[in-house]
Hints:
By secondary structure, the protein is an alpha+beta fold. The chain has one domain: Arc Repressor Mutant, subunit A, CATH 1.10.10.10. Helices cover 50% and strands 16% of the residues. It has 3 helices and 2 strands; from the N terminus they run H-H-H-E-E. It has a two-stranded antiparallel ribbon with strand order 1-2.
Amino acid sequence: MATTHAAQATAERAHELVAAHLARFPGREFTSHDLARVLGLSNTTARTALQRLADAGHVEITRAPDPALGKRLSTRYRATTTTTGARS
């Protein structure tokens, strides 16, 4: 049971960190890898937090060609007008 509480606390903290970082840079787009590196999270944890925020309407997901990836699309995330008020 303690593991479940610890995992939930980690997920909530990641959610708050990601939301706060995106809100600090309105209009700027980030990959999950960018956010994971800057915030000290695993890429999976960052992606999960981003998806939760997107599901709640606090993050916009964009996909665009990335020159570094050739023809592959890069998934990026940016704040919406409600990101600042996002809570877990």
